[in-house]
Amino acid sequence: MYQFLEHSTRDELDNTLAEQIAVLLNQAIKDKGKASIAVSGGSTPKGLFKQLAAMDLEWSKVTITLADERWVNIDSDDSNTRLVHENLLQGYAAAAKFFYLKQGDVLTNETLADLNLAAEKTILPLDVLILGMGEDGHTASLFPCSEQIKQGLNPENDNALMSVQPKTAPHQRITFTFSSLSMSKVVILHLCGKAKKDVVNKAIEGSDLFEMPIRAFLHHPTLNTQIFWAP
Predict the structure, then answer these.
(1) What is the model's pLDDT at position 170?
(2) DSSP E strands, the chain
(3) pLDDT number for residue 149
């Protein structure tokens, strides 16, 4: 299931979404004393990150992570971790904890097992999930071109995290699986621009999950994905 929430400008979208996320995080803190949120990389969320960083809430009780990450050095321009540190972990939000997906030089089976265990113990299920989407309909690092896509979309996959090597994009990736992401309390798809609107409409109209993995979220019978879009 999905809801399409259209906004007239990106600033309006960022402001509205930041306020909604703050409410959700505050409610989670009130209910259980802590909150967790996974965000996505790219240029689209930068404005949202800056709005969130200016929100005065109990960030020390919030753990931020990424829906996925490229296995690159943190100082790389391709690092989502760097993006989050430079744009979200600022201002009030500097007090938040950060759960690193990229740890060490090589993504070994041992590293992946340790990260899976840590994620299960500390941040899952997520209170808030902010997804992005590529022109091919991938979300997180669930790429339709990858050999790991069936594993990634398997709703019965016991692993929270997995390694992915896309064929149409650079870098090895680490990503949360659909099975772990779909357990999130609130799922939001954050999109901007006509091209992305066209892609999400194509995803809505079709049913093949492996062709466009975002469909796993949009067509799930019980999961409600809120699509926040602005031109």
Answers:
(1) 94
(2) 2-6, 35-39, 62-66, 68-70, 97-98, 128-131, 161-164, 173-176, 186-192, 225-230
(3) 98
| pLDDT of the residue at 82 | 98
Q: How far apart are CA 36 and CA 122, in angstroms?
A: 9
Low-confidence ranges of the chain (pLDDT < 70): none
C-alpha pair distances (Å), 101 with each of 158, 214, 220: 18, 21, 26
The two three-digit tokens of residue 207, written as one number: 């049913």
Quote the pLDDT of residue 86.
Answer: 98
Secondary structure of residue 142 in the 3-state scheme:
strand
Contact 30, 20 (CB under 8 A): no
| pLDDT value, residue 146 | 97
- Whole-angstrom distance, CA of residue 166 vs CA of residue 177: 15
Q: Could you give the CA distance from residue 111 to residue 5 in angstroms, rounded to a whole number?
A: 39
Q: Are 195 and 135 in contact (CB under 8 A)?
A: yes
Q: How far is C-alpha 189 from the chain's CA centre?
A: 9
* CA distances to 72, 100, 150 from 104, in Å: 10, 10, 27
* All domains of the chain in start order, with CATH: 2-230 (3.40.50.1360)
Q: What share of the chain is helix, strand, coil (3-state, %, to 5)?
A: 35, 20, 40
List phi, psi (to 5°) of 148.
-95, 5
Could you tell me the sign of the dihedral formed by the alpha carbons of 52, 54, 55, 60, in that order?
positive
Give the pLDDT of residue 173: 98
